[in-house]
Amino acid sequence: MKPLTAPIAEIFTSIQGEGLYCGQKQVFLRFAGCNLACGYCDEPAAAKGASAAEMSVKEASAEVLRQVRESRARAVSLTGGEPLLHWKFIKALAPLFKKAGLAVHLETNGTLYRELEKLKGLVTVIAADIKLPSSTRGKAFWAEHARFLAAAPEKTFVKVVLTSRSSLADVKKAVALAAGARPDIPFFLQPATARRGGVKPPRGEFMEKACCWAAARLSRVKVLPQQHPVWGIK
Ligand code: SF4
Fold first, then answer.
1. Is 62 within the bounds of a domain?
2. Is residue 234 assigned to a domain?
3. Which of 33, 40, 70, 214 has the most other CB atoms within 10 Å of its CB?
């Protein structure tokens, strides 16, 4: 039988630069391919599946565990692209990481709830995006995000990327959705990283309004920009 494979863009060790585990050393396994096309995407090559290598579960786990031994990291982060497109691969991979004593983090765009349901008990932490229509070329995913958060385990946190095009009405919807799932869910507002000729972060005044609205309805709200550009690392 042909071994199970997935397109892997890269496997590398770094420091988590976003969200609840910001600052923690992790080994990252980046899957290629994505079901969305966000205007602010910072991994467009991985999202489009460019220059990925097909790897088997054995090959991918061996490389992750080698880097874990070298770095003494205690967590592996499955990222992308959209890792849940490869849920069958993750289903085979995650138990190997758990057996090695690693926390398995999943960084996802929070839309593929059916795929998430197939990984029950296999993922330790989920970093789930809520995509605002202003960031995803006008397409809304409210219903998908609601079903995703309903299926997500307790150790889930939410990230909302804000750009100069984000609207407060969208932020309010995202807050209502998160509060509907769990009012104490950690909720990160992440101003987009500016890119030459493209995406711009929102103005400070907008960030403040968004943060105040969220903090009045959720107990664990933080504003946290991506730290990798600040630290000068990937
Ligand atoms: S979901 Fe993530 S990887 Fe996919 S296009 Fe959006 S930002 Fe890029």
1. yes
2. no
3. 214
